[in-house]
Please model this.
Amino acid sequence: MRKTALFLTLSFLILSPTTTYATTTESSLAPHAASAVLMDADTGAVIFAKNPHQRRPIASVTKLASLLLFMEALDKRQMHENDSVTTSSYAASMGGSQIFLKEGEKMSVHDLLKAIALASANDATVALAEHLAGTQDRFVAMMNQKSRTLGLEDTHFQNSNGLPAADHYASAYDLAQLSRALLAHKRITMYTSSYSDYIRKNTPKPFWLVNTNKLIRFYPGMDGLKTGYTKDAKYCLAATAKRQNLRFIAVVLGEPTAPIRNAEVAMLMNDGFSRFTKKPLYAKNQTVVMVPVSRGKWKAVAAITREDVGILTDKANGNPIVHYVVNWRPVAAPVFQGQKLGEVVGFIQKSRVVTYDLIAQTDVPKITWWLMIQRIFQDLIHFGSSAS
Model:
């Protein structure tokens, strides 16, 4: 292999008892939903779709976008879970689901997040939005910008909590993608997986929170994410469940009742877990290849996986060959930790089904002049000893 090669590909073949799968559209899985999607959370593969791009009112499922911004702010240390948030008169005025915040009341970010994730509290959502962005309007602008960044083409927000508003909508597909982005923040399921909790614990009036997603208690593996209901939106749910190495996202919009909504989400999840398996390829943070680095302090950097890498396959289909390729290019310093260096591409038969990024494990700064001179002398000495 020449050192000057610009593009390198490693290919591996794996025998697997599965083959390519197609998106299911049979309405028997969600007959009462106006729209629905079942998606593999890791790959984004759509397994079931019913009117997936139809723009609809989504009620409190809106809070997925708010929670995503809150999780990002925590990860970036723009706010902390023990920060104290002071309730504005505007936040205290919210109707619908609420924890009855009073103007001037102080509550921690942690407790506000519990109130949003479990009780779908509109007042808590606005209080935290104002804490992060200054005003709800600025926060809503952030929500819409995030939607554009994620490529959500059928989503637009007018507020942070999903109270009825004109020109406020999303599609089932967009909400599934939004859920994927939210699940990238492992902290979120620490909140959404609880069935009940308390806020104002050390006060004369502790407030009991009960999760509006009853499947958390009754469906094995369910650990999120968000329910919603208004008269126009009807009953909505963006749910996620994990069993072994499979995680699915099910979104239903416009269901006639809460029991029917829950039953149809359970049917979607059952379909996913019964039909599919995942062939593991690499674990999260596993080194896949050492990528050469020119003009770097080190001559190579480990390209690692950002997440568990696998290929989703349908148990019902034949016995084809599943394969994957690892693509990468040599890079020049500086290299930054987390920088994309290549990708793992999975195929079933000849169909490309999934792509995972490979990222730099560490920084590689540019080589110094002194180290470059040392390296040249070392190479000369090595060349001389080899020649003799």
Summary: The first strand starts at residue 8 and ends at 15. Residues 369-387 form the longest helix (19 residues). The domain at 31-277 is CATH 3.40.710.10 (Beta-lactamase).
